[in-house]
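Please check the following.

. . .
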Amino acid sequence: MPGAAVGADAQGVHAVGGPEDREPEGAVERDGRGRSRHEWSQGRSGERVIPACRGCRSSAKHPTGHASDPRVGGPFRENQYWTNLFIYRYVAAVFPNQTRPLVTAPAETAILSLLLAESPLSRVELARRTGLSSTAVTKAARPLIDDGYLHELPPERTAPGAGRPVNPLSVTPDREFFVGVKISADTLYGTVCDLRSRPRVHASRPLVDRGPTAVCALIADLVDELLDARPEFRSRTRHVGIAVSGDVDRPGGRVRYSVLPGWRDVPLAEITARATGLSVTIANDVKALTVAEHWFGDGIGTEYFALVTIGAGIGSGIVVNGQLIEGAYGVAGEMGHISVDPAGPRCHCGSVGCVEAIASSDAILGTVRRATGHTDLDFDGTVRLARDGDRAAREAFAQAGKAIGVGIANLVSLVGPERVVVTGEGLDTYDLFGVHIREAYTAHCFKAAAKCPLTLRPLPWEEWARAAAVVSIQALFP
């Protein structure tokens, strides 16, 4: 790809072009001392300083897609710049299977991310939405067009007598494909998605041996099955995204802790990359789903957004200023481990009264077993009891709903999202605790925060795999 590209030198070592390959873009503005915000300037120590963001020319609020520019948050010193460039190239050489950015310039990132969600758009609309000049939009789009990721649609007039027709830009969905794999307690779910996250084929494999090596070998078999489904898949697929529950170190490619497969400190990305020969990105499953909904689902166009999952576990993901919040240690947004009852049951995390310890499907099942004495009862049987009017079963679901409602209220009062999507396999039993969720949510939200709507969204298992594929698409961006 011209400009900032992933390429190879004569020795076959992959290198990533950095921001130094591009000239500053957009209209030139000058500050009170006559300095251009898009030119190199002198810092007090004599070091060269790059403005906070060359995409939208602001460090306060950024359009979706380029707020992750490493310059965001203050001056970006030259010594740090060269350090980051060295890291890019070191990682490229030592870890050739590691996913690396397709685009590194903020303007390209802003344009491509917007078009991924909302193609087609005219250059005028792209300029308006990103805050870039028309010239900057044209310049940033050109390498993406040349490399086949974008294409121009036939000219169209915006209105009678409106002047020269415009050529809208659109993403080329089949330019590249992405595999997504969701690891559940007993099944691997896989899908192949195009560049706009549309699933093209699904497959699944039962999970018998949960050991990391066995699971990664099974993932490799599943990936082969998916890529063999159509001739074009294998030649245009470089990336695999994997979604797994628990504490996931996404940059390091490790699963620190996951209760469902029973893993601790597993280098999942490295093992899977060796097994498949593809670049691998891993993510917490709920955070992956949050990214997918924000980019391509109910969260499109929101700057503040949250997603809550209910079922085998209780999870949540949070978007602030258009960016997923992962926190310093990658565990931000763990609503399931907010304590809502100091006298409640002990959670598997070691705390007491967590939302998950009260409201997960296993927690509800355990409560009903203890109350009824039916130790051989399964969760489906618990649901039947509750729907048949059994008092203990109905009370267990009511307490679960209250715990979830209080947890969502805490999240909304803290973050103030525009919308909360509630999803997960637990929605199948929403009739048993939905009213309790909404009552507790309304009662515990702080004043106007209760205006935030709760949107229910059914979630087939294949959607988890799609979310994993979206994470691998996201990894193309810096």
About this structure: The longest strand covers residues 199-206. The chain has three domains: 6-155+167-171, 177-291+464-474, 298-457. Residues 227 and 234 are 5 Å apart (CA to CA). The radius of gyration is 24 Å.
